[in-house]
């Protein structure tokens, strides 16, 4: 018994120490922030990130600290990373919109079809894990209804349980697809923020390409292709072009 306790202690204690160290760093970062020492707050939060821990709240607090330092690209980058983990958080959305007001480029977004926009809004209501839980719960309910169908003699109960099981099974599949979509968004690093003060986007992946348009730091773009140290990016209005990889930081 003592050996088991010792083994468990050896396994668990490092995780407890890890959590305690991160909590101390986060607490110290919050103190620095309230004192107006925003760079020290950023440094403490980044130590937590470097330990391998991440959360929407952590990125949100880093974004707030960078915003206070007037480092708009870094603020937007961290708000966007927070939004990926908590897509329906109103505080993140609010602060992100405030930071985006300082971006020079005001790019019009290509309007989406109502159904596509409506579906995205529903998917963004919950995280990947939440949708996965909904899917599993629905599947369990479906199994229970099928058991009722097989073991009850009443015709009405059989019909009701059978049709309900089909409907709930469909919802289980839908919830699973929503979970998969949210997971793909987390793993997808094709979106990026411009970090160079101003960038001339080229028509081809080299300095000899024609100048297409000028964009500025803080703008969000989508990476669609790459060639060596060059990346093809697309703006929200559909315009495309090439820039150097060093001009952006991926979300």
Secondary structure: elements and pairs:
Layout: H1 2-34, H2 38-50, H3 56-68, H4 72-85, H5 90-100, H6 114-123, H7 128-151, H8 155-187, E1 191-194, E2 198-202, E3 211-216, E4 220-227, E5 230-234, E6 240-244, E7 248-250
Antiparallel strand pairs: 1-4, 1-7, 2-3, 4-5, 5-6
Helix pairs in contact: 1-2, 2-3, 3-4, 4-5, 7-8
Count of discrete structural domains: 3
- The helicity comes to 55-70%
Rg from Cα: 24 Å
Strand order of the largest sheet: 6-5-4-1-7
Provide the residue-averaged pLDDT.
Answer: 91
Q: Unreliable stretches, pLDDT < 50, 5 or more residues?
A: 8-13
Shape: globular
Count of alpha and pi helical runs:
8
Largest sheet: 5 strands, antiparallel
Name of the CATH first level of the largest domain: Mainly Alpha
Question: CA-to-CA gap between the ends?
Answer: 48 Å
Q: H/E series, N to C?
A: HHHHHHHHEEEEEEE
CATH architecture descriptor text of the largest domain: Alpha Horseshoe
CATH H-level name of the largest domain... which superfamily?
Tetratricopeptide repeat domain
Keywords:
SH3 type barrels, Serine Threonine Protein Phosphatase 5, Tetratricopeptide repeat, alpha+beta, 251 residues, five-stranded antiparallel β-sheet
Textual characterization of the structure:
The protein has eight helices and seven strands; from the N terminus they run ααααααααβββββββ. It has 251 residues and is α+β, with helices and mostly antiparallel strands. The model is unreliable at 8-13 (pLDDT under 50). The protein is globular. It has three domains: 2-100, Serine Threonine Protein Phosphatase 5, Tetratricopeptide repeat (Alpha Horseshoe); 114-187; 191-250, SH3 Domains (SH3 type barrels, Roll), CATH 2.30.30.40.
């Amino acid at each position: 018994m003592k050996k088991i306790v010792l083994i468990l202690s050896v396994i668990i204690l490092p995780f407890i120490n890890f959590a305690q160290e991160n909590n101390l760093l986060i607490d110290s970062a919050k103190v620095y922030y309230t004192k107006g020492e925003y760079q020290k707050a950023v440094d403490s939060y980044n130590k937590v990130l470097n330990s391998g821990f991440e959360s929407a709240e952590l990125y949100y607090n880093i974004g707030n600290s960078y915003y206070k330092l007037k480092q708009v690209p870094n603020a937007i980058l961290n708000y966007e990373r927070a939004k990926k983990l908590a897509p329906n958080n109103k505080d993140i959305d609010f602060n992100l919109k405030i930071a985006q007001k300082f971006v020079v480029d005001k790019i019009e977004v290509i309007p989406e079809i109502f159904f596509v926009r409506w579906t995205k809004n529903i998917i963004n209501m919950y995280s990947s894990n939440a949708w996965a839980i909904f899917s599993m719960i629905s599947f369990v309910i479906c199994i229970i209804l099928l058991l009722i169908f097989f073991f009850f003699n009443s015709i009405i109960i059989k019909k009701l349980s059978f049709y309900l099981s089909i409907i709930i099974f469909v919802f289980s599949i839908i919830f699973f697809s929503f979970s998969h979509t949210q997971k793909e968004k987390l793993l997808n690093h094709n979106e990026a923020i411009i970090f160079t003060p101003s960038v001339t986007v080229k028509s081809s992946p080299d300095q000899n390409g024609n100048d297409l348009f000028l964009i500025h730091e803080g703008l969000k773009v989508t990476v669609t292709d790459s060639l060596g140290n060059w990346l093809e990016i697309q703006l929200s209005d559909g315009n495309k072009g090439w820039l150097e990889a060093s001009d952006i930081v991926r979300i």
